[in-house]
């Protein structure tokens, strides 16, 4: 077929929906115009949805389910698109993370997913459900993704993993006391691995203010850099090494001024015992 755009479903939730819609149409041997006629839309509208340029409305997804006989799957996918469980760019980041030679994380407020216990991850996900930010189904997806990311760290050879946690990550109690105690134990276990370094950026850091937003940096197998950063409402994936270099420099400065791993572990153990 001429002028057929190839979509990467990991690019965005809209792209994933478009790829699914196109596949269902192709299975039936319909053209965009033929599907448009059955749905009551224009061929241009179908093209825009399939190519990720236009999000599906609830009416569009529900009608498509009826016409294509998909039992509500498109409506559910469209609903998750309007209320995404993951920020844009993060699914692609996770794919590269699973193969990276080196992983650098800086987190604020909560323990990063790569280091979370299942119970800690579940509390965070269920809290998001209660606040109406995600659905229960999306909460399950988040918890499953945490386990999936951690499984990827067991590959041979394992990646080097460098983590700097803002002190708020270990001071902020998540869930019942037992949940947080187990999470602190997990951090200590992680730091004892031969391929990891874990440091705490303390509240009293004076010389250089801590970076305010969490960010992650990957060194890929070909030594190229990739970075991912999040604000409160959006994520940004940077695929260009040159653009990621300033963030890498900031990370090294943060490491230099954070507590050493030995001092960080002593702090964690004191906090675990309730003596800090």
Give the ordered list of helices and strands: HHHHHHEHHEHHEEEEHH
CATH architecture of the largest domain: 2-Layer Sandwich
Full CATH superfamily name of the largest domain: Endonuclease Chain A
Radius of gyration: 22 Å
**Could you say how many structural domains there are in total?**
2
Continuous helix count: 12
Report on this structure.
The chain has 276 residues and is an alpha/beta fold. It has two domains: 13-82, lambda repressor-like DNA-binding domains (434 Repressor (Amino-terminal Domain)), CATH 1.10.260.40; 90-110 and 152-273, 2-Layer Sandwich (Endonuclease, Chain A). Helices cover 50% and strands 12% of the residues. The protein is built from twelve helices and six strands. It has helices at residues 13-28, 32-39, 43-50, 58-68, 73-82, 90-97, 118-130, 136-151, 168-171, 177-191, 241-257, 261-273, and strands spanning 102-107, 160-166, 196-201, 215-219, 225-230, 235-238. A six-stranded mixed β-sheet has the order 3-2-1-4-5-6, sandwiched between helices. Helix 1 (13-28) packs antiparallel against helix 5, helix 2 crosses helix 3 (43-50) and helix 4 (58-68) packs antiparallel against helix 5 (73-82). The longest helix is centred in the last third of the chain and has 17 residues, at 241-257. The chain is elongated. The termini are far apart. The mean pLDDT is 89.
């Amino acid at each position: 077929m001429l002028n057929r755009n190839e979509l990467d479903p990991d690019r965005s939730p809209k792209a994933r929906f478009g790829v699914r819609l196109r596949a269902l149409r192709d299975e039936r041997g319909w053209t965009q115009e033929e599907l448009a006629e059955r749905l009551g839309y224009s061929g241009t509208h179908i093209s825009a949805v399939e190519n990720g340029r236009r999000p599906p409305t609830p009416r569009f997804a529900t009608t498509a389910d009826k016409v294509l006989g998909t039992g509500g799957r498109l409506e559910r996918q469209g609903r998750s698109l309007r209320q995404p469980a993951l920020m844009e760019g993060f699914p692609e980041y996770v794919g590269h993370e699973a193969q990276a030679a080196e992983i650098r994380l800086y987190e604020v407020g909560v323990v990063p997913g790569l280091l979370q216990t299942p119970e800690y991850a579940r509390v965070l996900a269920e809290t998001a459900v209660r606040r109406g930010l995600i659905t229960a189904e999306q909460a399950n997806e988040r918890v499953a993704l945490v386990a999936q990311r951690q499984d990827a760290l067991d590959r041979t050879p394992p990646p080097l993993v460098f983590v700097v946690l803002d002190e708020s990550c270990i001071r902020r109690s998540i869930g019942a006391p037992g949940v947080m105690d187990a999470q602190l134990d997990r951090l200590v276990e992680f730091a004892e691995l031969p391929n990891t370094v874990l440091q705490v950026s303390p509240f009293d850091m004076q010389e250089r203010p801590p970076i305010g937003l969490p960010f992650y940096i990957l060194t890929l197998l070909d030594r190229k850099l990739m970075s991912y950063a999040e604000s409160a409402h959006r994520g940004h994936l940077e695929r260009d090494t040159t653009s990621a270099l300033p963030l890498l420099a900031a990370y090294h400065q943060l490491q230099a001024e954070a507590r050493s791993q030995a001092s960080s572990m002593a702090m964690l153990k004191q906090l675990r015992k309730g003596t800090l």
